[in-house]
Amino acid sequence: MKNHTFFAGIDIGSLSSEALILKDNRILSYSIMNTGAYPERIAKDCMDQALKKGGLNINQVSCIVATGYGRISVGFADKQITEITCHARGAHYLFPGTRTVIDIGGQDSKVITTDENGFVTDFVMNDKCSAGTGRFLEVMARVLEIEVNEMGTRSMRAKAGVQISSMCTVFAESEVISLIADGKDPDEILKGIHDSISKRVFGMAKRLRVRDEITFTGGVAKNKGIVYSLSSLFKRKINIPTEPQIVGALGAALCAREMFIKGKL
Question: Which CATH number among 3.30.420.40, 3.40.50.10190, 3.90.1140.10, 3.10.560.10 corresponds to the domain 97-240?
Fold first, then answer.
């Protein structure tokens, strides 16, 4: 018989996958892995790792919800729910005052508005190209020959950024190569990249009724340069979770708990 206190969420993203276990309404454990080319295998491995950290086996979990672009590949999930819903719910759990969520993932970016209970009221999404996403930053880091996790700190050294006119990954890559050849300071190039990404997200947000508090989720939220640039544009402090990558999986686990309690399975 299943223990009714454990619930799980799994978020299969384009670059990374996360699994999270709730015990009652508290985070028990989680795991983060690179998605790679085989999301079905990673889903199992990621869940197994989270379960091991929590001292559980999968039969003790009452309900599992999958989210993310690869959610349909999670065969052991009881239900699949869109990442829009899950990021909103996860952000609200961590910061109950959240009314706007900015999520920048591996290959898309979203701005979501919520009500006081963490339910989605509206959203806008860019999933047509990788501009301004984790993949975009990875390409720029490779061109500049630095580590992705150094980009934010390095960009904040610059007093001003070099203007990056293109946000298309292919054209921006060529533009940055030209800027390097012209002898431009790499830190100033980085600041220009970060400012361009932030302006794109800010432009998306202006299509919605943005309200306080703003919570930033997804792996790119670990980039201090993006956080600083966005805070400047929105003219307010932005909430950053301790581990921004698990917010989608957390929201999925919260949805699993709610569905089980309400008997909606």
Answer: 3.30.420.40
Closest CA to 202 of 138, 132, 114: 132
**Tens place of pLDDT per residue across the chain (265 aa):** 344 689 999 999 988 999 999 998 999 999 999 998 899 999 999 999 999 999 999 999 999 999 999 999 999 999 999 999 999 999 999 999 999 999 998 888 999 999 999 999 999 998 666 666 788 899 999 999 999 999 999 999 988 888 888 777 778 889 999 999 999 999 999 999 999 889 989 999 999 999 999 999 999 999 999 999 999 999 999 999 999 999 999 999 999 999 998 887 6
Q: Which of 111, 121, 124, 130 is nearest to 14 (CA)?
A: 130
| Domain boundaries, given as residue ranges, for the chain | 6-86+246-261, 97-240
Q: How far apart are CA 242 and CA 30, in angstroms?
A: 13
Task: Output the pTM of the full model.
Answer: 0.91
Which tokens in the block code for residue 132? 């301004």
Distance (Å) of CA 20 to CA 77, 196, 234: 13, 33, 31
CATH architecture of the domain formed by 6-86+246-261: 2-Layer Sandwich (3.30)
Q: Are strands 109-114 and 120-126 parallel, antiparallel or unpaired?
A: antiparallel
Pairing of strands 109-114, 26-34: unpaired
- Rounded to the nearest 5°, which phi and psi values hold at 188? -70, -35
Whether residue 43 contacts residue 74, with contact meaning beta carbons closer than 8 Å, is answered with yes
Phi, psi of 101, deg, nearest 5: -120, 130
Alpha-carbon distance 73 to 229, whole Å?
Answer: 36
